[in-house]
Amino acid sequence: MRYLVIGSGGREHAIAWRLLHDGSATEVYVAPGNGGIDDRYRVAIAINDFESMYTFCKSKSIDVVVVGPEAPLVNGIVDFLHNKGIRVFGPTAKAAQLEGSKLFAKYIMQKYNVPTAQFREFKDKNDLLHYIESLTEYPIVIKLDGLAAGKGVGVCNTKHDAIQFINTMVNHDTRVFVEDFCAGEEASVLGISDGNTVLPFIAAQDHKRALDNDEGPNTGGMGAYAPAPIVDSRILGRVHREILQPVIQGMNKEGIPFAGILYAGIIIKDGMIKVLEFNVRFGDPETQVLLPLLNGKLGDYINAAIDGTLSSTNLSFRNKHAITVVLASGGYPGSYSTGLPIHGLDQIHNDILIFHAGTKREGNTIVTNGGRVLNVTAIADSLEEAYNKVYSVIPLLSFEGMHYRKDIGFRALKKRA
Ligand SMILES: Nc1ncnc2c1ncn2[C@@H]1O[C@H](COP(=O)(O)OP(=O)(O)O)[C@@H](O)[C@H]1O
Ligand SMILES: [Mg+2]
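Above are the sequence and the adenosine-5'-diphosphate SMILES. Below is the predicted complex in structure-token form.
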């Protein structure tokens, strides 16, 4: 089978790698891809150029399209390609509202009794400001409704922070809500769904802050590991029954069946599980640790999800541990230079996986081309071993200004120490 993967990050490199290496695919094209993708399979089409994606699919007889990022999903790429007869994995624009509109997700959760923080929507900025003035207990969380590339949530420790967030982020026509702050440990649980059945992946944990000990500014994600022991098999079963299944069934009842990856961002405290958000696609960098651990063929699951036959499919994972560490450009998540040569890639042996993100090829060298540059991934029998393995090879790699976190997996590793 021939696949087209849409996107340019580490997630898309991992999806393409997995489809090729487990025998799902004979060819995998990636649009627009990155320096990790062989030039013959790298397609220079922007993620929101649906018409060109369609033309490309026809010209290369693509069998299945897999959409990586949220923007084209929310913009309707699945509807567009499906209507033209192309098989495509991912939710329709309406179903993608679970990520595209945080309020839509809140109302679905409320209606179908899915555990999430109490919230209150504000249609008027002055009402919101009055409400904030009246609050005495902090922290609180203020969330903008639409896609905001990770900048639409304010966790506010004081009234002052809250007012500042509102004044910089909220206009008079911004849909916005306030929700209760939930303490606890976060994890990501992805499920693959065909619209009726949803099968959960093992849990992963991302590391959003730029610096060790979860300090510094927020980023797209500096590393991940799986499985995350905070989600033991009992908790995972509850996430399946109390969150993923009711949402999939609820969406069905609403007449908006959801097929694709439903990603629940959850927070756990003393056995209480709450949903912080949904994403409607593979997580980045969670995918880089989940796909290497998956048993079977990724393409079989994707096709079963498209065909509506997941109920007769088993999803299982290897009894191993994976860690991925993001090597980032100097200055990221602020401004950074690009075009810097990356050294040492040829010294990394085969049992380490390198998923490229912000890279490109320039002749025979790979140079930096983004904030998150490489995802260095190790698999081992224990998390400790995976940790030691990944951090022993990173010093072989370098580019000017490179920085990375030294503590990926620390929550799980501390618990065991
Ligand atoms: N109700 C909440 N209580 C505590 N922290 C929260 C809450 N909602 C969000 N957060 C924090 O803010 C981060 C971003 O919020 P999230 O809803 O995941 O939005 P997005 O990923 O779209 O920015 C979460 O990962 C979590 O750390
Ligand atoms: Mg999030």
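The pocket of magnesium ion (ligand 2) is lined by residues 265, 277 (CB under 6 Å).
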